[in-house]
Amino acid sequence: MIAYRLITAASLLAISPAVAAAPVQHIELKSYSYNPAPIHLKAGQAVTLHFMNQAGKAHDFTAKRFFAASRIISGKVDGGEVELAAHQTAAVTLIPVTGRYKVHCSHLMHKQLGMRAEIIVD
Description:
Blueprint: H1 2-20, E1 24-30, E2 33-35, E3 39-41, E4 47-53, E5 59-62, H2 64-69, E6 71-74, E7 81-84, E8 89-95, E9 99-104, E10 116-121
Parallel strand pairs: 1-4, 3-10
Antiparallel strand pairs: 1-2, 4-8, 5-7, 6-8, 9-10
């Protein structure tokens, strides 16, 4: 058990400089859109996604394939989505993988009302 903790601590220390230098991508959730759209990220480069719900009601950022493919370093991603109450913020630091990924709000009718976008990782 001690060896496992030492390996984990060492690996965290190796990640820390990259995380500390990770650029921040601000993502606004509005009724009924995301800004920016599309969202452009660089493959293999750590980035902190800073989500800001600008609306007076809850929204989410659902991108199951994107989060499954990415290496999550910190932050809460539950079942491929980040849930935000009205005016709440959240941050997720990750390392994305090349591809094009769909994102939408899974709340009733929000996607149909236009709350969808694409994440493009080059």
